[in-house]
């Protein structure tokens, strides 16, 4: 062995070729953490000093190649000054440049996932061999930065500016066929053959069949486009990339501008441009928020794995109640590999549920994401039935009937008698107390909530609700089933609205108070969408459905009368009483018409202002800042209450629930991160301006204590 570290080993092969093997022994995947990079630097120095070296390949003993840099190190790395970040980047560049400058041909055997810094290492090599099941890509823009170890320099010179813009600014993963077609890799082989193919291409390069030195010159030289061609390539891309990224995500446009700046430079100067731009992005609030989200997502997954490790597998599921929601649950379960029985008392409802699943599968087939054989297999995994014939084999049954406690209790009691010993029963309720529903059951310890968000196939969150008598076994198995369905489960304790709706309705209450004080709902929607929400509160109420929201509002008012109760007519009640239910009947705050794709298109309805007359005693102008403060303050205070009452276990889970459940702006990092960014002292001072609006606007004593002692939710 030529070199042996904890992660990097260098083994001699035949014909003077050496194999740099990456094996991160402390992890299930390979990551380029600081310790690994230090070892890589030492290994490359040893290789450079090795006499008669004929070639170097880079390989992995794991099922992945390298998933990227160690993101857990980013927070600390980015706290230093821009100058120090640039200095650290140049140290990394020195390693990758040394690989590119080795006195022999180099190749990388990409046997699995190869992202970020892992792919940048691959770009520093002369040849790239990719396994037929591998994926490559540069996803850094999703963290608010761009590739900083030479990716913006080498990739455009390798595959062309247009392709590189799409790879880097879109942050997308690439499958073997696309990577080969666009020139990012040199060959695609069976995964088991990647190492042999890498050795083979080195031998052919040494035999003169491939000119590896010419490849290096191309990667280290200016981009081969004249000034007019460059202008066309970059200026035309700015509009497309800018519109996709939006105003809150600066990294994609910054990446594009960086590539444009160094297009006419050689490697050393181009790297300097890349490093300066990277350092600026690394210091932004958006980067801090998005890196924080990654960390929180990992924390949530770790909690989920903890539950999953204690759970028996779910081999057979059932859903009670077909229709749109039941059909969505059935589709999601079957498409991810868990067979499911879909029961209803009505044949038409079963047909609707199957139609929903078929429609979703048809879309996958039409987009080339599934073939007809797989579609048939998924549909065969959904068993529609009007009786309980096969329920004795069910491991988890999800009740998804109408949001009515009497009906739910009757259905739950009925199905409990049909399930085998130890089977778990869950209710897909958005507001009704799990503890209360459990009173209808003989074994409440086997019962919990499993709140899916609509549409089921798109929304990643599932709230798993623990009632007073719910066992840990029931929670664990439900979490395991949610994960098997491809969802992110977050365990919460029982209360009106659970976590997400409990926090959402104070936000809606803020909207109602603005309208009653004379605000224009169109302005409120515009401001909150500019703030980063995917839709403003009026538009969101239309999408949720005014009847659904009205019911949930009454549950919140009953559960928390001190701050969510109201005697006056709200804008929500006005719209509900007028029968303007939103998208489901084509009229709410807006009118809706189907576009050519069959999706509801929002249209401003000139009749609505007259319909809202009398809700406000007068009209007045609100600044954008006032609207944001009055909308966000009740939401933030309610999430603090949920943490203090142990409805949710951690700020990380709270933030991810809001991002996955209601579309809280990701670039703001979640409500707890948002409070940390503002500073609790500043937030509490700001809230004082609105304390006359009632308890929803009054911070808790714990928030005031945290503010006084400069504590944060994320230390």
Automatic annotation (TrEMBL):
3-hydroxyacyl-CoA dehydrogenase C-terminal domain: which residues? 497-592
Q: Which gene encodes it?
A: fadB_2
Going by the record, the broad EC class of this enzyme is lyase
Where would I find the 3-hydroxyacyl-CoA dehydrogenase NAD binding domain in this sequence? 317-495
Which reaction is catalysed here?
A: a (3S)-3-hydroxyacyl-CoA + NAD(+) = a 3-oxoacyl-CoA + NADH + H(+)
Q: Which family does it belong to?
A: In the N-terminal section; belongs to the enoyl-CoA hydratase/isomerase family. In the central section; belongs to the 3-hydroxyacyl-CoA dehydrogenase family.
Classification via InterPro entries:
3-OHacyl-CoA_DH_CS, 3-OHacyl-CoA_DH_NAD-bd, 3HC_DH_C, 6-PGluconate_DH-like_C_sf, ClpP/crotonase-like_dom_sf, Enoyl-CoA_hydra/iso, FA_oxidation_alpha_subunit, FadB
Keywords for this entry? Fatty acid metabolism, Isomerase, Lipid degradation, Lipid metabolism, Lyase, Multifunctional enzyme, NAD, Oxidoreductase
Question: Which Gene3D superfamilies does the record associate with it?
Answer: 1.10.1040.50, 2-enoyl-CoA Hydratase, Chain A, domain 1, NAD(P)-binding Rossmann-like Domain
What high-level taxonomic lineage is stated for the organism?
Bacteria, Pseudomonadati, Pseudomonadota, Gammaproteobacteria, Cellvibrionales
The protein's name: enoyl-CoA hydratase
